[in-house]
Specification:
The chain is an alpha/beta fold. It has helices at 12-23, 55-64, 90-115, 136-156, 187-200, 209-229; strands at residues 3-7, 27-32, 43-47, 71-74, 119-125, 162-168, 204-207. Helix content is 45%, strand content 17%.
Amino acid sequence: MPDALIIGSSDGIGLALTRLLLDGGWQVTGISRSSSPLRSPAYEHCVEDVCEPGYAERLAGVVARQPQLDLCVYCAGIGELLDVETMRGERRVFETNLLGAVATLELVLPSMIRAGRGHFIGLSSQADCLIDARAPSYAASKAGFTSYLEGLALACRPHGVYVTNVRLGFVDTKMAKADLRPFLVSPEVAARRIQRCIVRRPIRDTFPKRMALLLWWLRLGTTLRRWWLS
């Protein structure tokens, strides 16, 4: 029975993916800052916050119990609209979306490298290509995550370990706060796309493609506006 570790497993995409893996015969450990609605002999849940100082130490205990970890998926993520008068919440966005992932990789990746196998999947965002005045911390943290994941992917492949950057568009979760959410997909559809990546193990997967085309036009408009104002 293959072993998986899902960070951010209690709701949204992480919950949908955990259900898919359990249905597929995986043994799954989930980590989230809230409790999980799932009850299964093949599922263990740990309540932890990736931003807390003790996260790395407690994660090390989880990893020690899974020496042959086959898969780790980092689903944890938050997004906040910018309040430029207070800058409240900006640091936590980076801590959750990027630094929590780095802390996870520091513990998970070396054991995979030693074993000569394993797969790490990080959920980035198609917003990684944007200069976003409404939520700059979200776009910037995802840009950093994308760059880091794809650099790691190139470094790890010679060791038999795969790293995949999943760049999603709008998914119908509590994090999708925009007034307009074109090409919105459900968490279940997003989870099936990740399941596809588990099989194919690409370095990058962008979904849906129509969203990528729309963002290309938005990025062009932003570039022209910056040029006009400069």
